[in-house]
Amino acid sequence: EMPPQEGRGLFGRLFGRREAQPVMRRTLDDDMLESLEELLIAADMGVDTALRVTSNMAEGRLGRKLSVDEIKRLLAAEISRVLEPVARPLPIYAKRPQVVLVVGVNGSGKTTTIGKLASQFKAAGKEVVIAAGDTFRAAAVEQLQVWGQRAGVPVLTAPEGSDPASLAFDAMARAQDEGADLLLIDTAGRLQNRQDLMEELAKIVRVIRKKDPEAPHNTLLVLDATTGQNALAQVEVFRQIADVSGLVMTKLDGTAKGGVLVALADRFGLPIHAIGVGEQIDDLAPFDPEEFAAALTG
Ligand code: GDP
Asked: What is this enzyme's catalytic activity, as reactions (predicted)?
């Protein structure tokens, strides 16, 4: 069995390993609040959110002597309060097929997340179709085919460099013909040419709406937690080029930057549908605010 990771959470760092006795009492004063703010900022929560969280936590309690354990629980509760409203599993519509467009920069974990989602829905008895819409990246297409095989889900592809919108249209037709429950559409993530990407995404949306005026039903933005505060900038950009309806945060396993999720919740209020916690097909977890806050403050 692994020993507990002592001293690695925020409080371990604040009070030191040996001193972090749960019953040790400390005064909740300005110095203490400042230390807590620094810790939250170091965990990539961003200044505004860190200040809001600590000041909410201190309200009506300033000058009180509290045990380290109490402080930890109060802070976790405050963080949890920010996260609670955005923790929403991907909504499932009666619509067949439900069309989910997946966007995000290359490397964020789009392909992996699509594989994981396909596997989860397939295991839940849904018929799933994947469209490998990043037709310019042969590696992404191959990767999706591997995921599709593992999940037992068909992956529609098109020749390298061909029009992603035409693939999306064909995938839509096939998903409708087969009465599939879910169509997951991968997209390109080349932010270097934002205008091109915007037009490409708009065209995909336009053609799938010929088949279903309400599609896509969800536009998932996949973000890499290890990029820290950069994730906030990515949300800003992608909200300009696509109608982002929710987020998936990947690579939360083994990063100290998970605090960015709190900043995202605080700033944008977009639903966080799931979190990626590893590279394997089952490593997609529902987002649990309490568990997350407890782990962050740990
Ligand atoms: P894409 O370019 O956006 O399609 O990104 P990929 O899905 O190819 O993922 C990029 C890299 O991140 C790959 O090496 C994945 O195995 C890895 N990855 C994706 N999601 C996670 C996750 O939740 N945890 C970890 N540790 N790695 C991940």
From this structure: GTP + H2O = GDP + phosphate + H(+)
Atom in ligand 1 nearest the alpha carbon of residue 276: 23
Q: Along the 298 residues of the chain, how does pLDDT read in single tens digits? A: 333 444 456 666 666 655 556 667 889 999 999 999 999 998 899 999 999 999 999 999 999 999 888 998 999 999 999 999 999 999 988 889 999 999 999 999 999 999 999 999 999 999 999 999 999 999 999 999 999 999 999 999 999 999 999 999 999 999 999 999 999 999 999 888 889 999 999 999 999 999 999 999 999 999 999 999 999 999 999 999 999 999 999 999 977 788 999 999 999 999 999 999 999 999 999 999 999 999 888 7
Tell me which of 191, 279, 280 to substitute to probe ligand 1's pocket, judged by most ligand atoms within 8 Å of the beta carbon.
Answer: 279
pTM of the model: 0.93
Is residue 142 in contact with ligand 1, taking CB distance under 6 Å?
no
Q: Establish whether residue 54 lines the binding site of ligand 1, counting it when its CB lies within 6 angstroms of any ligand atom.
A: no
Distance, in Å, from the CA atom of 14 to the CA atom of 72, rounded to the nearest integer, reads 11
Q: What is the ipTM of this complex?
A: 0.99
